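Team,

Forwarding the record for the chain on the shared tracking sheet. I've put the sequence and predicted structure together so nobody has to dig through attachments.
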Amino acid sequence: MMIVIEGLLDAAELADFRARLLAGEWQDGAATAGAFAQGQKHNLQLQDGTEPGIGLGHLIVQKLWANPLFISAALPRAIYPPRFNRYMSGQDYGAHIDSALMRPVGASSMLRTDLSATLFLSDPDEYDGGELDIEGGFGAQSVKLAAGDLVLYLASSLHRVAPVTRGERLASFFWIESLVADDANRAMLFDLDQTIQRLTHQLGQGNRELIGLTGLYHNLVRRWVVT
């Protein structure tokens, strides 16, 4: 399952994000990579647990909790504090799979990474290359979105960031632990919820069959959610 959420940040928010990020303290991204990924990761990353990353990360999380499409697709239990990276010309991140468990800075417990997310902060015409290539059940997909758009995909997917050949690619990335751990069950709930929403516009909330379908959705949530 791969979901694109358009316009999570508007133009004014993007301008503020970029100005604050570019004034931040950046380090070699390989410093935060796992043992296998260190040789694959060639980028810059904002230092974890520092400003402006903390404040901007909070703003992203607030936006996500208020976004119906994100809630429907992720059924989130917890969101890893967003990180920020930069790819300059010649930099890339080779094929890898994200770690299954991560501990946010200052947290006492681990977070299971069910879903990965990338929020694009540079427009596609600002850089060449830099596509996020994701391999899934329907083959490889290349993602390069408008600034302010976010892509949500399975953390178990093999993925890479293609080399940037011109300009600079600025983005935020993070992970989500879902209330529904099973990817297939979560995908079915998402499809059912989206169908219910479309039918509600067509039939109205009082439609008896639609009420039954809504009940089925919530009963499946009760069966599959682990709180």
